[in-house]
Write the structure tokens for this entry.
Amino acid sequence: MSQGDRPITEVAAGILLDSEGRYLLGQRPEGKPYAGYWEVPGGKIESGESVFDALKRELQEELGIDIDASQELTVLEYDYPHAYVRLHVSVIRQWSGTPAGCEGQQLSWQLLSDQAPSVEPLLPAAWPMLEKLRGLLKT
Ligand SMILES: Nc1nc2c([nH]c(=O)n2[C@@H]2O[C@H](COP(=O)(O)OP(=O)(O)OP(=O)(O)O)[C@@H](O)[C@H]2O)c(=O)[nH]1
């Protein structure tokens, strides 16, 4: 699929949310676009994968955890210089294992009640995901 003449990169992102209202951010490793920026864990959906399949695989690869279920939160599109991305964002409240930076990335738990994360910079498309999540939890 394409947006004008730009191909669309389909991405699955998963917000891990714990019972104390904290969510997890990871720092993009060297060698990727926006290295050093903080993001919600996830990655590109491969051909033939569902959003959930991709999320499960990415969270295993990046964090070493296993998920059995997720809740769809929103779909966002963002036009970066390096790619036009469509982000399928889900919330995960239960997982097995303890999240670790399996690709050498730093991790940081953040309080959703804080207006802004204590780490920066954040990938531009991560902000609207957090706003959506705050909206969902208010209702
Ligand atoms: N995982 C993740 N990706 C995001 C977020 N926000 C956002 O714009 N993106 C964009 O979505 C795309 C995800 O690609 P990625 O580089 O993380 O995917 P990947 O791990 O499969 O990458 P690779 O195939 O280069 O190893 C990037 O273009 C990234 O800039 C976010 O919060 N989390």
Summary: Residues 51-63 form the longest helix (13 residues). Residues 12 and 55 are 6 Å apart (CA to CA). The pocket of 8-OXO-guanosine-5'-triphosphate is lined by residues 9, 11, 13, 32-34, 39-40, 42-44, 78, 80, 83, 85, 87, 123, 125-126 (CB under 6 Å).
